Amino acid sequence: xxxxxxxxxxxxxxxxxxxxxxxxxxxxxxxxxxxxxxxxxxxxxxxxxxxxxxxxxxxxxxxxxxxxxxxxxxxxxxxxxxxxxxxxxxxxxxxxxxxxxxxxxxxxxxxxxxxxxxxxxxxxxxxxxxxxxxxxxxxxxxxxxxxxxxxxxxxxxxxxxxxxxxxxxxxxxxxxxxxxxxxxxxxxxxxxxxxxxxxxxxxxxxxxxxxxxxxxxxxxxxxxxxxxxxxxxxxxxxxxxxxxxxxxxxxxxxxxxxxxxxxxxxxxxxxxxxxxxxxxxxxxxxxxxxxxxxxxxxxxxxxxxxxxxxxxxxxxxxxxxxxxxxxxxxxxxxxxxxxxxxxxxxxxxxxxxxxxxxxxxxxxxxxxxxxxxxxxxxxxxxxxxxxxxxxxxxxxxxxxxxxxxxxxxxxxxxxxxxxxxxxxxxxxxxxxxxxxxxxxxxxxxxxxxxxxxxxxxxxxxxxxxx
Amino acid sequence: xxxxxxxxxxxxxxxxxxxxxxxxxxxxxxxxxxxxxxxxxxxxxxxxxxxxxxxxxxxxxxxxxxxxxxxxxxxxxxxxxxxxxxxxxxxxxxxxxxxxxxxxxxxxxxxxxxxxxxxxxxxxxxxxxxxxxxxxxxxxxxxxxxxxxxxxxxxxxxxxxxxxxxxxxxxxxxxxxxxxxxxxxxxxxxxxxxxxxxxxxxxxxxx
Lengths: 466, 207
Ligand code: SF4
Description:
The structure holds two protein chains of two kinds. Chain A is α/β, with parallel strands linked by helices. Chain A contains 16 helices and 19 strands. Chain A starts with a helix and ends in a 10-residue tail after the last helix. In chain B, strands 4-3-2-1-5-6-7 form a seven-stranded mixed β-sheet. Chain B starts with 5 loop residues before the first strand and ends in a 13-residue tail after the last helix. Chains A and B meet through helix 2, helix 3, helix 5, helix 10 and helix 11 of A and helix 4, helix 7 and helix 8 of B. Bound molecules: iron/sulfur cluster.
C-alpha cells in the first residue's frame, strides 16, 4: 500500500496501538520555553516523577524576554520570575537550556532548525502552536498544551489519534515580490481558519519545491492558522544541505545512515490524501490582512470587504466586529491604510532570509516620519549573521530600530506592545484582537511588504518598487 | 484530574465565531506560574473597559442573568490560536464545566480533556437555537450528561452528541494519563531499544 509521509512518520513512532484507543507515539524531540512549562514541572514534582529523557529535551527563553539591552536586568518582575523558574527547572531535571545570554538563544522555532535539532522524520512537540514550523523538514511537529508537556517530560510519549491528511498543492511559479508568507496567507484566505482542523497538511507542488528552507518554514509555521496542527513538506536535497554540519545534526557514519532513512520519507506515488486543495502560484499577489483573524485577508491590490459580501450570518457579524475593531470602512483600498508601527520578526518571518528581503527594500531609503519600525531577529545567531552581512546598518540608517532576539511584538508579552488604536504592519502570524497590545490593530504582511510599508507610511504593493 | 460525569447549570451565550485563546486569556496573564487563579482574567479585554476594572456592560457574560453560568454556548472554531492551556484553566476557574460549539480548534479541544472541561460539538443550527434560547430566557438551564452523551433542558430539548470513547472513559473517571502511560513501560523501553543509534539526544552530541 502506498503511504503518505504522515503515515510513514506515524507508523515509525507507534509505541503501542490498540483498537478503540489513540496510538501511543514516541517523541524524538521536546522543545520547551518559559511560558507553558512551569506548571508542567510543578506537576512532576508533585507526583515525584522525573524527566524520562532530558537528552531529548531542549529549553530556551523567548516569549517574554526583553529585546533591548541584555546586559541590564529584566525589568518586569513577573517575566523575570518565569525565566528564573525555567532556569531552576532545567537545572533540577538536567535539561539543556539556551539561556537569555547564550549565543544560541532565540525563538524556539528558529533555533531548533538552526542548531540542527530539527531533522526529517522526527516527531517534535513543544508547548506552542507554531511548532508546526518544523514540519518544513519533513518532521511531524505539533503544538501541545501544558498537561501534554508534563506527559512528554514524564514518558517521552503522547497518546494521539491519527489525523486526516490534506494535500495542498501550489503549482506554477511565484511572481516578483511574492513570498512564502503570501502563499500561506492566500491558502488561509482560501480554506479559512478552520479549513484544516483535524488534518495534517502536506504542502506540495512546484512553488513549494522552489522555496528555500526559510520559506518552507514560513509556510508550515502558519498551518495552525488554517486549523491544522501540523504541516509537512517532503525533505529533499535542499533540506539535507540545510541540516548538514549543524551542531546537533548527525555526523560521519550517522549522517549517512540518517540520510538513507530520510530519503524514504516522501509520500509514495499513488498514496491517498483525505482532502486536496490546489492553488496556482502565479496568481498569488502579495497578501495583507484587513481584519482580526488571519483568514480575513485580501491581495494588496484589493479593498476592505463589506460585511454583506459574506454568506453566513456568523461571518457577517464577525466582519462587522472586525471592521469596528480595526477602525476601517468597507471598500477602503488596502494601499490607502496609514500605519503607526511596523514589526519585522517572529517565528514566521524572523530568519536571515526574511531580514535580507526586508533590508533589500529598506536599503538607501528612510522610514516614514510617522512610523515607528522595529526589526527583531528570530534568534541571537540570526542577529549575528545579519550584522556580519551589514543588514543592521541598512536598517539603522533607514531609521528602523535593531533589537535583540525574541518573540517581542508578535505577542507583546515583553514591553514591545502597541498602544490602543495604533496600527501596525507586522510579519508575525496572528492579527487577533489585542494580540500586539490591547486595542492594537495588526495587518499581517511579508517582510518586504512590511519594509515598504514602513517607508511609505501606509500599506503598499512592493511590486511597484521593482 | 477532576472527573466529569454530569453538569446541570445556567447557559451563557457567547455569540461569536473564531474566539481565539488570546481573547480567552490575554498574554499579560500568562506569566503566572500556577495553574489556578486565571478566572478573574477570563475574556479580560472584552469583559472590562480600558481601565481594566469596570465591567463592560455590553459584554454578554457581564449580564447579571448569566452570573454563575457553568455552560458556555458559542460559535465555531472556538479556542483557535495559541496552545496555551491557560485558556481551559481560566474557563474552569471562572466556573464553566461545559463548552458547546459547532467546532473547536484541535489543541484547545485536547487541552479541555486534560482538565475536566467538557467540549461538546453540536450542529451549527442546534447551537444557534441554544444561543437564542439562552438569550430569550435568562436563567435557561441545561443538563449535560457525559455517560449518556446527551444535552437536555428537561422539556423540548434532548440532543445527543458524539465523543471519542477513550476520551469519554478518561474524563468520566478523571484518569491521570501519565499514570496510564507509565504502565506501558515495557513497550516504551522496547521502542527506545529499537530507535536508530543516530537519533542521539542533545547530551551525547554537544558541540
Ligand atoms: S514569535 Fe510569536 S508565534 Fe512565534 S513562538 Fe513567539 S510568540 Fe509564538
